[in-house]
Give the backbone structure.
Amino acid sequence: MAEVGISLIVMIATSQKNTGIRLAVVLSDAADGRRSQIPEPGPELTASAVVAHNAVAIKLANRTIALTMSEGPSTETGMTAGKPFKVSVAQVLIYELRVRDAMTRPPVTAGPDDSLRTIQNLMKSHRISGVPILQNGAPVGLVSIEDIINALDQGHVNDPAERWMTRDIVALRDHFSLVRAVAEFDRHGFGRFPVLNSAGELVGVITRGDITSCLMQQLEKRAEEVAAREAAQTPGQTHDLELAEPVVLRAEVKAGDYDSAGKVSQRMRQILRMRGVDPDIQRRAAIVAYEAETNIIIHSIGGDLSVAVTPGKVVIEATDRGPGIENIELAMQEGWSTAGPLARELGFGAGMGLPNIRKCSDKFEIHSEMGAGTRLYSEVLLHKAARPPQEEHP
């Protein structure tokens, strides 16, 4: 099996007379030699469960949670011959990662005497759906968006939080595994959990979306590590940025061509990866190129996108032929958008394009004239992963 630098899964099966099979699952990380065992104790399977020298299925409460396969022929029992399954990297990560790795911090909180209207505004400004209520630094309740809606329906949105908050809150500890967190979400059906540290202090809030985002980021990180190693082993590639030849990518961008969105940024990212550029810089440059291209697709009558990869920086220029931006200051605000219904239906036009470009750029300029068009200029430096603080747009 090819070495890809991710955690190794080892299944150990032992027979038990009249009780079936007991499995222990050992996770080992080649990077630092860490080992952990899941689940604990191992689940017991019936005699009809699949146990072969190279394929094992694990079931807990009649639900399959992990499967693995090694190389070589298989003599399957209780599964379709020739179709063994593999453990996904996400399944490994959900055991390895902790709640503290996925939670949102610092938590947005309110007090028992704060009005629901105040909390509603907090939810709106922070784009969240629940706010823990603290008294003397300790969590005493939680107000959800459902509580706000109920209070609005009854004309009590100016009531203090303590009259409407959920008092019997269930909290997770920051050291819990994500698989434990998922189980708690399934058990209680909540949309969010407050997170406490070992001292019982509120340190964050976690949602299902946080878990998904965390897994996606970790999967991307591991994929980038593998790609970087492959690039480093590719003959004929120049990995010294100072010696690399400049590369310029140009593309005409057509209005409404949503299917082509992202092609230039993908090609640019391949070039940066082959040159050994830091993955964080790759991501930032890709976001700038992608958002600049989609802005032309959504908001203009067409234009051009240029990406120049030089030894020291990536220069991204996007120019459209109109209609122009009437109020640049307003357009730079997160969530503000003039996208039409089609763009929104396709998942575009969330009003984050220009703000994301500015956040990811080391240098950012934008000029627009109504009836003439818009020119956007961005630089992403290649020699540092951390982006310097950005000044607010005038």
